[in-house]
Design goal:
two-stranded antiparallel sheet; 9 strands
């Protein structure tokens, strides 16, 4: 990790704090993970801009603020298991790896999953487990999860994912009415007393989830 990258990450963390991110552990994780290692070389100069960037396969790496906000909403305490639906570049999984004991991440596009695995291994991040599958089904083998993070928009929160939350667990997903909608809402589901408490946390914009619980190609 270069000194220049470290300086950029420190500045990004300060900007995130100024934008309302309060969780100290999340800010620390964002400051530690080198985002430039998860984008194409030609885009590394833009790695710390607060913008989504293309990663191939019609997918993107989310802007830093939305990664930080999503992580903050699942209220990590350094323990437990988290499920990520949509591995993408692997950047979000790398941040989650500093906030939970174990990360399970599912991606439907093999090339992205394989590339993300290589990126995390090159950074010696060893507590992330990968699966190539339709993420809307979750990964029931290791449920229940303390938290679930969905990194692609869904028409509604997939029932299998909610069922894989532990009591008191939190799921965060962008929910929108159509695959290309600009009307997505960052939605949190808290599993409490066997019931699902649904909260809305403002507008967002993600690529659509593809598959049974998302949209077809």
């Amino acid at each position: 990790m270069t000194p220049t990258g470290r300086i950029q990450r420190e500045r990004m963390a300060r900007e995130l704090a100024a934008q309302g991110i309060r969780d100290a552990a999340v800010l620390r994780a964002m400051q530690e993970v080198p985002r430039e290692r998860f984008v194409e070389e030609a885009l590394r100069g833009k790695a710390y801009s607060d913008a989504a960037l293309p990663i191939g396969e019609k997918q993107t790496i989310s802007q830093p603020w939305i990664v930080a906000r999503t992580c903050e909403l699942v209220e990590p305490d350094g323990t437990g298991r988290v499920l990520e639906v949509g591995t993408g570049s692997g950047y979000h999984a790398a941040v989650l790896a500093r906030l939970f004991e174990l990360v399970y991440t599912v991606e439907r596009i093999p090339a992205l999953s394989q590339r993300a695995r290589q990126s995390l291994r090159s950074l010696r991040i060893e507590n992330v487990h990968f699966k190539i599958f339709d993420g809307g089904y979750g990964w029931s083998e290791f449920a229940p999860y303390r938290a679930i993070v969905v990194t692609a928009a869904v028409p509604e929160v997939p029932t299998p994912l909610v069922e894989q939350l532990e009591e008191g667990g939190r799921l965060v997903a962008p929910v929108g009415p159509s695959a290309d909608s600009a009307e997505q809402v960052l939605t949190r589901v808290v599993r409490s007393g066997g019931k699902n408490v649904v909260e809305e946390h403002g507008p967002c914009r993600f690529v659509p989830l593809r598959g049974k619980y998302g949209w077809d190609e």
